[in-house]
């Protein structure tokens, strides 16, 4: 844990040099109630009172924290200089910043990226007030570029944790295949999955209410909704969206099943076609995914393929980065819709991990989705998950 | 769950009328990564894309959300009007606000209270941009007063959930008394507590690393730090800070033990005196706690009593509100230190639940702390936890 954080702090220092920013400050309070998404990656503990975690271009680290948390910070051991205060952070904050005298101070606010937007508006006003008699209030800039790079570029240790989470998730999908049969409900399938998760002591990649998300048959919510009491029936297409959090790193994968009807020994033509179009769209997109391409271009490849085959386009992006959160990093494989801000326009970089998750509706049967995870390499991309090749058949 | 949220929304409408504010809006995105602390209380589900949850003075509720989350929002059932959007929230947002045409729009930013400060600075900038061609950007005000009232005033259902969490916590303290003996470490005591928590399927009131916090003997961190491999010894004062989260509501209590030395059948004079001063300080403070008093006045009563007996003052507030979070509500029983902002100056109201948790160091022995929970009544206050009367003795 500590080692992983020190590795990311070191990487942050490299990025500060690359972007020529003297100082990056994560400014927080009461992280038990709402936590700046950077805390787990670059601090590794909580903070109760106003606290500043500073990383500088020359490799220094400063934690300015409430005095009652001094011993804890020391034992966590991720910051070299610890400055405890009793009544107000202001004096020590100005003192530390003055010694650094930074050209720019990156702080965590961003219109585009929630992961670089951990500074609340009230805390922003507090910070401006603390700095109002100094030259530093004028030097605040968004840390969005730093955070996009830091969260995106996975270290070897991070990648191996992510592969572990993927492996365990795929194992659970396998177990689910033998559990599904006509008559079981979406909820029962979800509970079966959660019982395996509990037994193994794993965490979930997102809210339990929708992890796993399970949809059986036609006319379901299709995504971002909780499992219901709908029962699996013959002729249903079933899809499941599920991810684990193991040692702080997430997986996020989807698989599709078909429940055979009497006399069938394979999925009917329409179902097979829908599944194949999804599978093909993922392969087409993955082939073009490499450093320097833009997210919207990759999204368009999959989206266009689905439209060309006569299906409606999916109402979301093709894929997102993943890491400590299921939705992580900056750049996004999404369409150029206002709701995605500038994220689909950011260049794709080596070592980023993306999901690829197109979807389409097979009228009268259900929804076909496959979600794979890929890592961007020097000249292309590699699948981290063994891609689903065939629709999983349930023999009733 | 839904019932509790509808109860709080109804209470919010009353508060909007009391404060004469037409509309309150919780504006969020990607709540899976960082969640506005109001979401669980007044929405009851997550939101992925920019989403606005609006409560009006006349009792209307509007959820403006990404289209993919429409079915989920409908099934959660906490908002009467649901407005799904596909590409950008802007149009529907302006449309809904225009129909309300509010004099003031309360949004969640606050310099003083983290619980009213769920709006990030980036999202604040987004909001201002969405509203820039309307008259509404000028009408934004802080929701801090609304949230302080709403989180503070516990409904009967909320109080009964909190009593349940307290009861179970006290049960666990009892079990701990039979577990503690010389030679066991702080970590082992904490693990023992966590095993009971797991067995019962309870949640914790704060981060597992420090819940419970256990400190044995002299010269420990004393607070806000993780249990260590320090072993319990004869002559140690032990204190533990621990809370549960059951059905979404928290407890937060502390108790003190003493490990008898050979030949002792009671705690030595200094230990007993330290314990008694803490116990007395709590009673003196509770006696003055009632609607209309200010938090710093109540803090001062306990703090002054401890100083008068020749101990150092505690480096924190006497107590905080508690509810869905261990640190909840607005008004605080804290000293007039800058780090507490205006919270010690807010009047105490009926139905608020506070902790009372003074501390002092017994030189050479350890730290004496007791933490009780009290609810403010019409004319005074009532203990929700059965107060610790005697220091718990461990017979070695």
Q: How is this structure best summarized?
A:
Chain A contains ten helices and 20 strands. Chain A has 396 residues and is of the alpha+beta class.
Write up this protein.
Two copies of one chain form a homodimer. In chain A, helix 1 (2-19) crosses helix 6 (144-152). Chain A has two domains: 2-151, Creatinase/prolidase N-terminal domain (Creatine Amidinohydrolase, Chain A, domain 1, 3-Layer(aba) Sandwich), CATH 3.40.350.10; 153-394, Creatinase/methionine aminopeptidase superfamily (Creatine Amidinohydrolase), CATH 3.90.230. Chain A has helices at residues 2-19, 39-42, 70-76, 90-100, 121-130, 144-152, 156-179, 186-200, 269-288, 295-308, and strands spanning 23-28, 51-56, 61-66, 81-85, 105-107, 140-142, 203-204, 213-216, 237-242, 244-246, 249-250, 253-259, 319-321, 328-333, 353-356, 359-362, 366-369, 372-376, 381-383, 392-394. The mean pLDDT of chain A is 95. The longest helix of chain A is centred in the middle third of the chain and has 24 residues, at 156-179. In chain A, strands 4-3-2-1-5-6 form a six-stranded mixed sheet, sandwiched between helices. Chain A has a four-stranded mixed sheet with strand order 8-9-12-20, covered by helices on one side. Chain A has a three-stranded antiparallel sheet with strand order 7-10-11. Chain A contains ten helices and 20 strands. With 396 residues, the first copy, chain A, is of the alpha+beta class. At the A-B interface, helix 3 and helix 5 of A face helix 3 and helix 5 of B.
